[in-house]
Amino acid sequence: MEPLIFEKSQPGRRAFSLPPLDVPEQPLDELLPAHLLRHQPALLPEVSEPELLRHYVRLSQLNYSVDTGFYPLGSCTMKYNPKLNERVAALEGFRHAHPLQPEETVQGLLQLMDELAEALKSITGLAAVSLQPAAGAHGELTGILMIRAYHLDRGEAQRRKILIPDSAHGTNPASAAMVGFEVVTIRSNSAGRIDLGELERHLGDDVAALMLTNPNTLGIFERDILTIERLVHQAGALLYMDGANLNALIGLVRPGDMGVDCLHVNLHKTFSTPHGGGGPGAGPVCVSDRLAPYLPVPRIVRRGERYALDWDAPKSIGRVHSFFGNVGMFIRAYAYIRMLGADGIQRVSRDAILNANYLLSRIRHVYQQPYPETPMHEFVVSAAAFKRFGVRTMDIAKRLLDYGFHAPTVYFPLIVPEALLIEPTETETKQTLDAFADALLSIAREAETEPELLRSAPHRTPVRRLNDALAARLLNVAWNGQAKHETVPSAPSS
Ligand SMILES: *Cc1c(COP(=O)(O)O)cnc(C)c1O
In the chain, what are the domains? Predict the structure, then answer.
């Protein structure tokens, strides 16, 4: 085997110091069978303690995160996660709890979960909650399973269709299809909202539910929601609301008051639990009285002063997660909600909406808004006008990285060509929003004068433009013996 080449290793250098051995040394071959012993020392880099520390700190800094910079990834609500939440989740009693402990010994945790569910009920205006689902998409699946159970229970097995607007997140049709429903797409109108005529045409006794997002993924509030609700229920169907955009509504509007039957909440978006890197997340589902009998088991119930787990729910769709879900996320979300209180919760949405509208007002003379409505907590602009310089949305997104910002969501929602979906969240200062707006405006000038700079961006990141699909599927970050960072194939330069 070829010897590995370490860049910083020097023979004999050590990152630790130990006191001299003060017990008799035992020969190794008395401790281990001879065939298990190494014949040569392991080939490891030999470095000093500061070098070791710098190596790992530098590696950690190659990751962009909400703790290192602005992260306006639309629909994902990358708000700051208060560090207090982490402290609370790491408290002794929580940290050492085991899912197989008897109920009597985890009363505090059950109380916390019960109170979190109560808080979600009052925030959403819905009747009952299951905390089990591990993500938004999992909450959707749980909700759709309950909707199926509801219709089957009423002898309406012919309700095989789920209506979904064309602006929806891809998980919506995926969840409906996974449960076996036929997905019917409802066109948006020129204002970026559900087309009521189109909705009415599709409603009938073969429709199980309308699955809508409000505000929708254009950041626009479906202001016809009460009419929509009436039409859907008159047709005997149910109303599912994707609650991923709840950051625009909390403390202001309750989905329950809009006639929603089922809503999933992304704790890892709205309620500040860490988001990204593959989880864990949490996507509790909140339901109206109609769907409450079908919620997953076990359910946490309060009997006098004690909390218990109740399995006695004959109509339940069963369990959707081992044990209780991602309990660590519940602790963080609970800490966040209790820290804010009712007033603070309302301020979240007000500030999120204010920040989005301020940012939009700074850039909209250069980046066109395809649906010029006043948005809520996020907004969509199109970079189609830059095509005449040979510049695409992806080039702008990559160039933003050179300015030190995470890119917004791009090419989504699908109904907007060259889309940039920007969600600043409430936790950013005016100075940060201004700096980001200045970067976008400066990039727009570069598109005109130096388009090649954008097409070849990013220039200042540890890796350049990668093939996203391969980077996700075949990521290999192992050290390969060469002083080189790029370990996934680059994107073809088309
Ligand atoms: C994030 C998101 C989802 C899916 O949530 P996950 O927790 O990522 O599974 C669904 N719909 C919308 C609009 C979203 O933004």
Answer: 83-339 (3.40.640.10)
